[in-house]
Write a structure and sequence with these properties.
The complex is a heterodimer of chains A (about 110) and B (about 110).
Chain A (H helix, E strand, L loop, with lengths): L4 E3 L2 E4 L5 E6 L6 E7 L6 E7 L2 E4 L8 E4 L6 E5 L8 E8 L7 E2 L3 E5 L1
Parallel strand pairs in A: 2-11
Antiparallel strand pairs in A: 1-3, 3-8, 4-5, 4-9, 5-6, 7-8, 9-10, 9-11
Chain B lengths: L3 E4 L2 E5 L4 E7 L6 E7 L6 E7 L4 E4 L2 E6 L4 E6 L8 E7 L9 E2 L3 E6 L1
Parallel strand pairs in B: 2-11
Antiparallel strand pairs in B: 1-3, 3-8, 4-5, 4-9, 6-7, 7-8, 9-10, 9-11
The chains are: A mainly beta (about 110), B mainly beta (about 110).
């Protein structure tokens, strides 16, 4: 079956611009997670959705970052007024209610010039 | 918050040798310990996980051991093959069905033919 998909695979933008990153979780998975991975580091938690609601957004670095999951499936991570320090790979993962296992997508590489 | 230390940062072995990667964690309430393999340009892929009611788990050439008293766990890969070359991450979470993960910084494993 299809795994977690993320679009775009690469995004290059200029400092100050707004970007949206999309995640399509595995069908039927109720939990969805966003992580950020900087070069040479492990993934760092950003936000977790249970259904449509953000159950834990404690990892969002500041109020320029926002994420939604309006229908409990696809999620969009939104970054306003991008800064060069936002450059990283943004990873999405999903899991179902009966398992702790998180399945990751391929990530979106964001480059802010 | 949880703090995860992973060692070594790089590991070079000859094909057929064994490889061991170690992680320590700080939060005694953590009880879910997955290991992920990440190849270049791809998202992390779960290779094995263990929960705190188990001391060891094996899956073919891969095994994980857990010492909950000392708060450390290890990944063991036997009979390494060139295709095992990748970055390996340990992670720590709570086995509650939904859990954010805290990752180590990763170990780059290089298996030479």
């Amino acid at each position: 079956g299809a795994g977690v998909s993320q679009t775009p695979s690469n995004k290059v933008t200029e400092k100050g611009k707004y970007v949206e990153l999309r995640c399509d979780p595995i069908s039927g998975h109720t939990a969805l997670y966003w992580y950020r991975q900087s070069l040479g580091q492990g993934p760092e938690f950003l936000i977790y959705f249970q259904g449509t609601g953000a159950a834990d957004d404690s990892g969002l670095p500041n109020d320029r970052f926002f994420a939604v999951r309006p229908e409990g499936s696809v999620s969009t991570l939104k970054i306003q007024r991008t800064e060069r320090g936002d450059s990283a790979v943004y990873l999405c993962a999903s899991s179902d209610h009966s398992s702790d296992t998180q399945y990751f997508g391929p990530g979106t590489r964001l480059t802010v010039l | 918050g949880e703090n995860v230390e992973q060692h070594p940062s790089t590991l070079s072995v000859q094909e057929g040798d064994s490889a061991v990667i170690k992680c320590t964690y700080s939060d005694s309430a953590s009880n879910y310990f997955p290991w992920y393999k990440q190849e270049l340009g791809k998202g992390p892929q779960l290779i094995i996980d263990i929960r705190s009611n188990v001391g060891e788990k094996k899956d073919q050439r891969i095994a994980v051991t857990l010492n909950k008293t000392a708060k450390h766990f290890s990944l063991h890969i036997t009979e390494t093959q060139p295709e095992d070359s990748a970055v390996y991450f340990c992670a720590v979470g709570r086995a509650s069905g939904y859990s954010t993960l805290t990752f180590g910084k990763g170990t780059m494993l290089l298996v030479s033919p």
